[in-house]
Design goal:
- Helices cover about 50% and strands about 10% of the residues.
- Helix 13 crosses helix 14.
- It has about 675 residues and is α+β, with helices and mostly antiparallel strands.
- The protein has a 5-stranded mixed β-sheet with strand order 1-3-2-4-5, with helices on both faces. Strands 17-16-18-19 form a 4-stranded mixed β-sheet, with helices on both faces. It has a 3-stranded antiparallel β-sheet with strand order 8-9-12.
- The protein has 26 helices and 19 strands.
């Protein structure tokens, strides 16, 4: 028997292709083999840039002794959680139910019928410090499988029953009170000294910050805005932000944002670009604009495929050492910058002989005022080149539809807010990549592309995030094709994922092979849930098209989200955000323009001011017929022979058209500009 991973495309699976363990990918053959050979299944889930996945692989999966028992008594399956998020989600819920926590690497033992009877995360090879070791676990299960199998089956049956018994919360009418409770819960855990929420480890969770920023605008709550600003500032000055090369690591292990878990992920950086861009638009803090520019530059430089797609991320480890790529010593800095400039850099970026991380230094600006100067930018460029020559980072070069969609949304937002057309070009190139490489002939999405191959039917997040990305593209330069594709994607989401009885959307499509459960995720964790983003998509489609079908879907969706969020609203911040269109004043602005482009005065107004709940459509001679199909109410508006005429509809009433855009401001009573 040989390892079955050698022909896989996933970088994570390929990292294990030479293991002595006889791994299978997730496939029918693996479970058929388990049935035929009467063996339990050992399932290991991780991803290629995961530090503890590397540790467990080195300690156990490359070890002949471990391989011997796995090959003798188990059928072993290796899963890339980024490539098969539906498998990961199902078994992570099992782990959380059985242990109260989760994480990666995820370790599951189950029957050939996929009924789990053990769940855990990282296991050392042998038991130590009171923690069960992998060898001891496998040996115990090997004995139980032969002598007390019924005990294992009973555990598996209980877990299966629990999964099947999980019920949706009853739908509720969304309310401002629910939104205020969510904001109150977040602000109740706010760290006023260091920013962020709760204790270490601290995660950026950008959608929490986006929620607070928009909540602050709608409720005129300066505390909420101040908490978001403080967090964004502290993260930008900490070690979680790569002061030399730009971009954010996954999370901080300490309260000050100094020591990160060094892996950089595409999704974190996408959502952080988005929220820093919105924060810049509102506050005009130069720090926020610099972070946007540097993080976009990092992504375009290091995570972008020549064809336009974006890679998953970069590893925490270099040469087997966590953080080695990023840390510096005073001697290294002075060897690159010279004695005088090196000493100045060390003072600015906390580089000392003692060190702030295992005897070396993570560059940071914690507690310091100001930001980069032209001189410090030159120093950082020199040190960046030095880092590249010193060691390298493993890059996971899978291209995922969901994560790419987040980056497209972020680049479209940042391009518009910051006036950077090259970023919009990058977003459009990535969208074209998804359309050509990750979409089948019927227009359905795949999860992953790598090495010429698209694979795995798209899940809810792929469709919801992609629809959101298309709507962000539309709001960046008002190409009607983006709105049309967003509508098409939303309709596919309804067809393949909707729960017609209880509301909400399932994680995976109705026509793919079922797992032991078909979950509906609403919790906004490291990423917003597909259900939450779907709620926002329906709200935007309702506002932009005026079609009753989208209003009905929006109403149904946010009632479902309100029911699930009621017990712990701050854990559903993006879901709450999707309710804003219903709960707070909103308006539609139609620009009827003689030319096929956005008038400069409108472009400047939208870039320089923030009007929560304002949605804009552009009607031109070129798109009139198309827009009439997508948003039928626009067919009754006349196009001017020259210039532009603006029509504002607010609170179910439409005002007369005007050529004076400044007069529109007086009508936006519910939208006091924040800048």
């Amino acid at each position: 028997m040989s390892n079955h991973l050698k022909n896989q495309k996933s970088p994570y699976l390929l990292q294990h292709a030479d293991n002595p363990v006889h791994w299978y990918p997730w496939c029918d053959q693996a479970f058929e083999t388990a049935k035929k050979e009467d063996k339990p299944v050992f399932l290991s889930i991780g991803y290629s840039t995961c530090h503890w996945c590397h540790v467990m692989a080195h300690e156990s999966f490359k070890d002949e002794e471990v391989a011997q028992i796995l090959n003798r008594s188990f059928v072993s399956i290796k899963v890339d959680r980024e490539e098969r998020p539906e498998v990961d989600a199902v078994y992570m819920s099992v782990c959380q139910a059985m242990t109260g926590s989760g994480g990666w690497p995820l370790t599951i033992l189950m029957t050939a019928e996929q009924h789990p009877f053990y769940a855990g995360t990282y296991l050392p090879k042998h038991s130590r410090y009171g923690h069960l070791g992998l060898m001891e676990l496998l040996t115990q299960v090997e004995t139980l499988w032969l002598d007390q199998r019924e005990q294992l089956y009973q555990t598996g049956t209980k877990v299966q029953s629990w999964l099947q018994a999980s019920k949706d919360a009853s739908p509720l009418e969304p309310s401002r009170e629910l939104v205020r409770r969510g904001a109150g819960e977040l602000l109740g855990t706010f760290d006023s000294r260091w920013g962020g929420f709760g204790q270490a480890p601290k995660f950026p969770t950008p959608h929490n910050l986006l929620f607070l920023i928009r909540y602050a605008a709608l409720e005129q709550d300066q505390k909420a805005l101040a908490a978001a600003e403080k967090t964004l500032e502290c993260m930008a000055k900490g070690g979680i932000y790569d002061q030399i090369g730009g971009g954010f690591s996954r999370y901080s292990t300490d309260e000050r944002w100094l020591v990160p878990h060094f892996e950089k992920m595409l999704y974190d950086n996408a959502l952080l670009i988005y929220v820093y861009a919105e924060a810049w638009q509102i506050t005009r803090q130069p720090l926020f604009l610099s972070v946007v520019k540097e993080t976009v530059s990092y992504v375009l430089r290091e995570l972008t495929d020549p064809e336009g797609g974006f890679y998953c991320g970069q590893d925490a480890d270099s040469d087997g050492v966590e953080g080695k790529y990023y840390v510096l010593t005073p001697k290294e800095v002075c060897s690159v910058l010279g004695k005088e400039d090196g000493a100045a850099f060390c003072r600015r970026y906390d580089i000392t002989e003692k060190g702030n991380f295992e005897g070396k230094n993570i560059p940071n600006r914690i507690g310091q005022k100001g930001w980069k100067t032209e001189q410090t930018e030159k120093w950082c460029e020199l040190l960046y080149r030095y880092r590249l020559s010193r060691t390298s980072l493993h890059k996971d070069d899978k291209i995922l539809t969901a994560w790419n969609s987040l980056m497209i949304a972020a680049l479209a937002k940042a391009a518009f807010v910051c006036g950077e057309p090259a970023w919009l070009q990058a977003a459009r190139k990535a969208q074209q990549f998804l359309a050509s490489r990750l979409t089948d002939q019927e227009g359905r999405l795949y999860v992953r592309y790598r090495d010429g191959e698209a694979a795995h039917p798209g899940n809810l997040e792929d469709y919801a995030y992609y629809a959101w990305a298309l709507l962000e593209l539309y709001q960046a330069d008002f190409h009607a094709d983006d709105l049309e594709m967003a509508i098409k994607t939303a309709r596919q989401m309804l067809r393949w994922f909707s729960d017609e009885e209880q509301g909400g959307f399932y994680l995976y499509a109705s026509d793919v092979k079922r797992l032991i459960s078909r979950p509906k995720e609403t919790w906004d964790g490291a990423l917003p849930s597909g259900n939450s983003v779907a709620g926002l998509v329906f709200a935007l489609l309702d506002a932009l098209t005026g079609e009753i079908c989208w209003k009905e879907e929006e109403t149904r969706m946010i009632r479902y989200l309100a029911g699930t969020a009621d017990a712990f609203p701050s854990g559903h911040s993006f879901g709450l955000l999707s309710m804003f269109q219903k709960l707070y004043p909103n308006a539609q602005l139609l620009c009827a323009c003689a030319e096929h482009r956005v008038p400069e005065e409108l472009d400047n107004l939208l870039r320089e001011h923030v009007f929560p709940g304002l949605n804009v459509l552009l009607l031109t001679p070129e798109n009139r017929q198309q827009l009439g199909r997508l948003a039928p109410f626009t067919a009754s508006y006349l196009l001017p022979e020259q210039g532009a005429v603006y029509y504002l509809c607010q609170d179910s009433a439409c005002h007369s058209g005007t050529r004076d855009l400044s007069s529109i401001l007086s009508y936006l009573k519910g939208f006091p500009p924040l800048s």
